[in-house]
Amino acid sequence: MGLTHMYRGLLFSSSVKNMCTYSVMKQLRILANSSGSNKFLLKFKSCDFSFQRSIHLNHQNEKLAVNTEKKSEPKSGLNKNPETIISNINSKKELNLIKRDNSKQKGIYSEIVGSFPEGIQMAFAYGSGAFQQENSPDVNKNVLDFILVVDMPRRWHRLNLDKHPHHYSFLKRFGPHTIARVQERYGAGVYFNTLVPMQGRVIKYGVISTARLITDLLDWESLYISGRLHKPVSLIVEPLNEQLLTALKVNLRSAFHAALLLLPDMFTEVQLYSTIAGLSYAGDFRMSIAEDRNKVSNIVKPNLQLFRRMYGPIIMEEEHLTWWQPEGQLEQALTFHSRHHHLKCLPGQVLYGLLMQKYQV
Hints:
This protein is of the alpha+beta class. It is 43% helix and 18% strand. It contains 14 helices and 13 strands. It has helices at 2-31, 37-42, 108-114, 153-163, 175-185, 210-219, 225-228, 242-262, 269-278, 286-289, 295-300, 304-316, 336-344, 348-359; strands spanning 54-59, 62-67, 77-78, 84-85, 98-99, 120-126, 144-150, 190-198, 201-209, 234-238, 266-268, 321-324, 329-332. Strands 3, 4, 5, 6, 7, 8, 9 and 10 form an eight-stranded mixed beta sheet that branches. Strands 11-13-12 form a three-stranded antiparallel beta sheet. Strands 1-2 form a two-stranded antiparallel sheet. Strand 12 and strand 13 (329-332) form a beta hairpin. Helix 8 packs across helix 9. The chain starts with a helix and ends with a helix. Residues 10-19, 43-76, 80-84, 87-101 and 283-290 have low confidence and may be disordered.
């Protein structure tokens, strides 16, 4: 299994960053032509952008400052209900809590994640193995995907190599230092072990550092993990790190405001959620070659209530948007002020890309 396992792991680890960067750039080209963007971007031409370690977001007179340099090792706990979906992730309860009732899956996620070494700060399941999609009604037949977030990747890989050496390709012969270096230096900062049989399912799990995840959530550095978190996920280990909790909230809001810039004045809820879900797929070459071209629709329609629970509170507080809930219709004001508002809520990396593309700064 060595070479094939190695190839698949590195394919996921090293190709996703470029693939998702293309997605971001495609969105930039569209956003750059949005009404009102020129006047707004001119104001930012002299700004000093510093994205890799910290970002300051001003949203409706609320400043959120996140410093990923702070060294802490907060505890985290295994969620007693593994069907909790990411949403209510801060003390202010600005996002909602979603639970998915599926007796067949109950307990499987917790058992799988519980078999890994300690040190997991956050873990979630995602994709067609965890959520029903229109073209795949039986989730049990699909590969079950996990993301594990850890503070110290090298230490965690060392423990996992001792416990599950068969999960790794022949890279295990070079030790945890090499594995962690491959994870951090190539691709989107995620190291995947693929086609792993556990608890009667075939799983794929990726490992990412807490600091790298926070950066991607805030800046959309690769839009790989942050893009997955635009959609419903099954949260297994709940994060307690305040910086990570804040970044998760900001990521949802960024996706919401980006989607509004891409939508017309009148649109439906399905169009809104499809635009959000499609942000991370727009530049994915697999969508035009191997993936189902209706993938976004297949994700949104069976999980419409989950999307509504995720984004409903954000929609309700958006002053530039009117929502007719019974009809599932929305209307936004296409004014300079509304565009200015949405643009300033985009991730710093996106704003920087807009500047580089339009003004060669």
